[in-house]
Design a protein that fits this description.
The complex is a heterodimer.
Chain A lengths: L1 E6 L4 E6 L9 H12 L13 E5 L12 E7 L6 E7 L1 H8 L2 E7 L9 E7 L6 E7 L8 H11 L5 E5 L2 H4 L7 E3 L8 E3 L4 H7 L2 E7 L11 H17 L8 H5 L4 H8 L20 H12 L20 E2 L5 E3 L4 H7 L8 H14 L3 H13 L8 H13 L2 H7 L2 H8 L6 E2 L2 E2 L9 H9 L28 H21 L5 H7 L1 H15 L5 H21 L12 H4 L13 H9 L2
Parallel strand pairs in A: 1-6, 7-12
Antiparallel strand pairs in A: 1-2, 3-4, 3-6, 4-5, 7-8, 9-10, 9-12, 10-11, 13-14, 15-16
Chain B lengths: L1 E8 L14 E8 L5 H7 L10 E3 L2 E4 L16 E4 L18 H9 L12
Parallel strand pairs in B: 1-5
Antiparallel strand pairs in B: 1-2, 3-4, 3-5
The chains are: A alpha+beta, B alpha+beta.
């Protein structure tokens, strides 16, 4: 296993064995520990002292189901704190198979106009990673959907996977993701949140290509245990109503949640001013499935974003002429451009998603920021054409586009909008904290800023942390949020997609299977308690970094308007007080 | 008579016949005063076991395996939403959301406090 360090000041590199301290870390636990150990907390996120770390999870690159995730870490230009953002992509699978445990990008070139591409391969004799550089300047200033085919063409005949950045990162936006290829070589899989694409851009690095020819694959300490775990997890995923073939996610995608949250009164609408959108059913996952069936004349179930996925939740929207418009329209993207902007047309929403992919923008941050801009009167609510035009302005770096590209928190300040739905500067995802109180606690306290993936429920064992607390009491919600955040940090470390949580929560053997897989790879004997502790330690490391960066408990707050403006239809406010919120990390 | 604003999602939209739109249907169902959820399901010929997550006026009233809302009396202009069995609402996105008291009481009897996707009766 390798640590590969790239210094972009002079494009030199250093290859070392994995230091002992980091051997039992991977994915998020490794990116966050490396950032905490090596990046000064007060470093400028776009300066030479920030680093960008890529790390596959423990089981990424193996035959473990739904596990091709890559964690990307750095100090965030959006939040100013530590950031881990992850994506499912063939690129992750290859990095794992090449036994590169951490790819650490450091320094930056003195000439700001430089953009480079890097190809990482393997030496046929020694098996060690090799590096080739190419001038990538010619690929800048263009749509990723145009650029990616050119890159694949340039390396035709080689088994390359592409990680890159778009124009948003070239403009150094707080809203700029790292773009990975999907299974069809499209630039559609994003480590989207927190502006890490701009960290990559600040280092003059446009592409990282992986050529895994001759890759040895992941070393597995106990093959028998690993296989046992893999089979248990696969069985759970194949059995559960949400994750099985033709189940909830494979049929309707993540946008299956649109109608549910809408009925619950928790679907943020018109820049978080209401909890229900009257036309939500027209843009929901069910409408996407039926709409595709109508346009193509046949049912289409969803596909995998990365190798080895059983869940296969990625949908595709098609135009009226049956040509592919975009993949995929996730719940968050659908909502951000739909209910949040009062747009009820799937063609418009799909176009906005595609533009974000092409420019390298995070769809959540873009949609939430557009909502704030609509609130400010920059463009009207419900105006799809105006929204499309504004995203073009963002991508092309026009002045108003640069303001919106800075992210929700900053744009809200510049535009003077009180109703700015952001925590730690990061735009809030698609679950209204006033209507769904539990997620509000996680939004407020997560080390990542408002993040809907920071606190998943993965096992009933978690209830043990609550003793006899009522999960709906304030104390119960605090204990659960803390445990959810810790166990989620472990899943993000294991390399699995968070969506395995739906199955392993209900099917105990699946949960054990995930643990067995990890123990099989590492040769450890970790238990459920160890997992909770490992995840908790990740949170401690991240929290310590944030506090040293000036982001302490005062930043663990839900925006003031959510405490004072009742949200229809239930007409409720977020009433969890500050003292209670402080207990989440105060008692970590 | 009372009128119930009834929403059917996914494959349940087929129970609305010609009124179905892609992915959903909205029906105004007339029922006698005092009608219950069971009466509504009977009126649209929807077997209760085919529905999963259910809302009455934005309050969660049923999930797969827990359908104690069958005797719930409906009021004029109530909004009732009936979801298909492939729908989902993960616990982290529903913890603290509004639900009928009767449903919450049932959940509290469950050993795992309602964190699961479905219940075994």
């Amino acid at each position: 296993m390798w640590f590969l360090r790239i210094n972009m000041k002079d494009r030199t590199h250093q290859l070392t064995e994995v230091p002992e301290k980091y051997k039992k870390l991977a994915g998020r636990s490794l990116t966050s520990n490396l950032i905490a150990d090596e990046v000064p907390p007060l470093a400028h996120p776009l300066g030479p002292n920030n680093k960008l770390v890529f790390s596959p999870g423990f089981v990424t690159g193996t035959s473990a189901p739904s596990s091709s995730r890559i964690s990307v870490g750095g100090k965030s230009p959006l939040t100013g704190g530590i950031k881990e953002s992850n994506a499912g992509t063939p690129w992750a699978w290859k990095l794992g198979r090449m036994r590169i445990k951490a790819l650490i990008v450091e320094g930056q070139p003195e000439d700001k106009g430089e953009f480079w591409g890097l190809v990482i391969g393997l030496d046929k004799e020694t098996g060690q990673p090799t590096l080739e550089w190419f001038d990538a300047t010619e690929f800048t200033g263009q749509d990723a959907y145009d650029v990616y085919p050119m890159v694949f063409k340039k390396f035709e005949g080689r088994r390359v996977s592409v990680c890159g950045i778009g124009m948003a990162s070239e403009h150094a936006y707080g809203n700029a993701g790292v773009i990975f290829e999907d299974m069809s070589q499209n630039p559609s899989r994003f480590a989207g949140r927190g502006g890490l694409g701009s960290v990559m851009g600040s280092k003059g690095l446009k592409f990282i290509l992986l050529d895994d020819a001759g890759a040895p694959g992941v070393e597995i300490a106990d093959k028998e245990l690993f296989d046992e775990g893999r089979k248990k997890l696969a069985a759970a995923l194949n059995e559960h109503a949400i994750t099985k073939p033709k189940g909830g996610l494979n049929t309707y995608g993540t946008a299956v949640l649109v109608n549910i949250l809408n009925e619950a009164g928790g679907l943020p609408t018109r820049n978080f001013s209401r909890g229900r959108f009257e036309n939500a059913a027209k843009i929901a996952g069910e409408a996407i499935f039926d709409g595709v069936k109508e346009r193509l004349g046949e049912e289409r179930y969803n596909h995998a974003c990365s190798p080895g996925c059983i869940i296969r939740c990625s949908n595709t929207w098609y135009r009226k002429d049956k040509s592919e418009h975009v993949s995929c329209v996730e719940y968050e993207s659908d909502w951000a451009f739909g209910a949040n902007l009062e747009i009820d047309d799937l063609d418009t929403i799909s176009e906005l998603v595609k533009l974000c992919n092409g420019y390298g923008l995070d769809t959540i941050e873009t949609g939430v920021t557009l909502g704030v801009a609509m609130e400010a009167g920059v463009l009207p609510f419900g105006d799809g054409e105006a929204a499309i035009e504004m995203v073009h302005k963002m991508g092309k770096g026009e002045p108003i586009g640069r303001i919106l590209g800075s992210g929700t928190g900053t744009a809200g300040k510049i535009l003077g909008v009180v109703r700015t739905p952001a925590v730690k500067g990061q735009g809030m995802p698609a679950y209204e904290p006033r209507a769904v109180k539990g997620i509000g606690i996680t939004y407020a306290t997560s080390t990542m800023g408002a993040d809907h993936t920071a606190g998943y429920t993965i096992a009933p064992e978690i209830l043990a942390v609550m003793d006899d607390l009522d999960p709906l009491s304030k104390e119960g919600k605090i204990a659960l949020s803390r445990a959810f955040q810790a166990t989620t940090a472990f899943i993000d470390t294991s390399g699995h997609c968070l969506f395995i949580a739906f199955a392993i929560l209900d099917i105990a053997s699946g949960y054990q299977g995930m643990i067995d897989e990890v123990n099989g790879v590492l040769g450890t004997k970790w238990t459920a308690d160890d997992i909770l502790e490992l995840g908790t330690e990740v949170l401690r490391v991240e929290r310590k970094f944030n506090e040293a960066a000036g982001i302490g408990k005062q930043a663990d707050r839900i925006p003031e308007f959510m405490h004072t403006e009742p949200l229809p239809p239930h007409n409720v406010v977020f009433e969890i007080d500050e003292e209670t919120l402080d207990k989440v990390y105060g008692e970590l | 008579m009372i009128v119930i604003d009834t929403w059917l999602y996914g494959e349940l939209a087929s129970y609305a016949g010609e009124d179905a739109q892609p992915g959903f249907a909205q029906l105004k169902i007339e029922l006698p005063d005092g009608a219950t959820m069971q009466d509504l399901l009977d009126e649209i010929d929807l077997p209760t076991e085919l529905r999963g997550i259910t809302f009455i006026n934005g309050n969660l009233s049923a999930m797969p395996g827990k359908q104690h809302d069958l005797t719930q009396e409906l009021k004029d202009q109530d909004r009732v939403a009936l979801f298909h069995l492939r729908s989902m609402w993960p616990y982290q996105y529903r913890q603290g959301a509004a639900m009928l008291d009767s449903f919450n009481d049932e959940i509290q009897k469950d050993g795992d406090r309602g964190i699961h996707h479905a219940f075994n009766g």
